[in-house]
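Quiz preparation item.
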């Protein structure tokens, strides 16, 4: 199997060095907690519920790039494709708590669930109240009746954006949890991959796929999708993805959505724009309006080639928080 070439220093130190780079690129918005893989807002908020996000590294700019005004108060980062440890979750929780409790938002993966839950128990022992929203947007991972088995992929972006804006506006942890949970419940995604990413320490691709093959529904770490098939024209691939999305998330004429087309790592802007053209045609055909379009690398998997499509169904409340100002390394608005 071919090795993947990367320009790095010591692969065992890549997470720490990448986080240092993100903090420096934030131009004063974020800071790095000493001797911890935890990114924090430079100016701590008090008297409001806090938002803590996190998960494995290797998906940059997720999660560390979404710390700043109108977004997360902190991000706790594990090693590449590995959950952050419970003690790191506790350290981050204590660092962001402003006296009104902390909301955890992260993708629904077994390691993250276990370690964040343990971190929440440790925080409770120290008198810090927490709530959790696990993003479960990947429609290819499990059918609707097994919602808790679904993975979190690029839907994290919309949930974090809305939760971050809400954290600036509301006064209670319960209200922040309600809004973030509503955003998560109205978000659906599906991905397609044409080539693998890799883990920096090994340089070995995380899966094998033929040069003439694609996999629809593949997860952000290379988890199996719903179907592997021969490479087809973009419109056919997008139609297959949209058929699964719309079957899981019935939309009606007059509905408004946010649309995110996410680059999994090494696809070109041209490919994403061609996909966007077809997605918009499919939505227009059923009378659905796109309120906001986001296209780019929001949650990646190293050099994996492919993209995902995310839709969030909006109401007036969700739209207001989605449109609110935000600023971070990876996402700015207003």
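Solution:
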């Amino acid at each position: 199997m071919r090795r993947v070439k990367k320009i790095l220093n010591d692969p065992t130190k890549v997470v720490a060095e990448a986080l240092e780079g993100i903090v420096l690129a934030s131009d004063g918005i974020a800071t790095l907690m000493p001797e911890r893989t935890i990114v924090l807002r430079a100016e701590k908020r008090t008297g409001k519920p806090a938002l803590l996000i996190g998960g494995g590294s290797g998906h940059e700019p997720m999660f560390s790039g979404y710390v700043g005004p109108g977004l997360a108060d902190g991000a706790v980062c594990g090693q590449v494709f590995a959950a952050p440890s419970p003690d790191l979750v506790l350290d981050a929780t204590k660092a962001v708590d402003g006296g009104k409790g902390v909301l955890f938002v992260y993708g629904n993966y077994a390691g993250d669930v276990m370690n964040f839950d343990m971190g929440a128990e440790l925080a409770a022992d120290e008198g810090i109240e927490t709530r959790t929203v696990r993003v479960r947007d990947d429609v290819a991972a499990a059918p609707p009746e097994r919602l808790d088995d679904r993975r979190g992929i690029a839907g994290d972006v919309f949930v974090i954006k809305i939760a971050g804006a809400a954290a600036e506006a509301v006064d209670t942890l319960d209200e922040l949890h309600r809004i973030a949970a509503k955003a998560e419940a109205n978000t659906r995604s599906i991905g397609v991959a044409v080539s693998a990413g890799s883990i920096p320490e090994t340089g070995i691709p995380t899966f094998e796929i033929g040069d003439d093959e694609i996999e629809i529904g593949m997860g952000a770490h290379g988890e199996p999708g719903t179907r592997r098939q021969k490479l087809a024209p973009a419109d056919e691939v997008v139609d297959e993805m949209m058929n699964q999305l719309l079957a899981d998330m019935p939309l009606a004429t007059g509905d408004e959505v946010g649309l995110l087309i996410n680059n999994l790592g090494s696809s070109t802007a041209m490919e994403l724009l061609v996909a966007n053209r077809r997605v918009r045609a499919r939505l227009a055909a059923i009378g659905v309006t796109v309120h906001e379009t986001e296209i780019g690398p929001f949650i990646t998997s190293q050099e994996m080639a492919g993209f995902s499509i995310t839709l969030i169904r909006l109401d007036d409340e969700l739209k207001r928080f989605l449109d609110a100002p935000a600023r971070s390394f990876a996402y700015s608005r207003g």
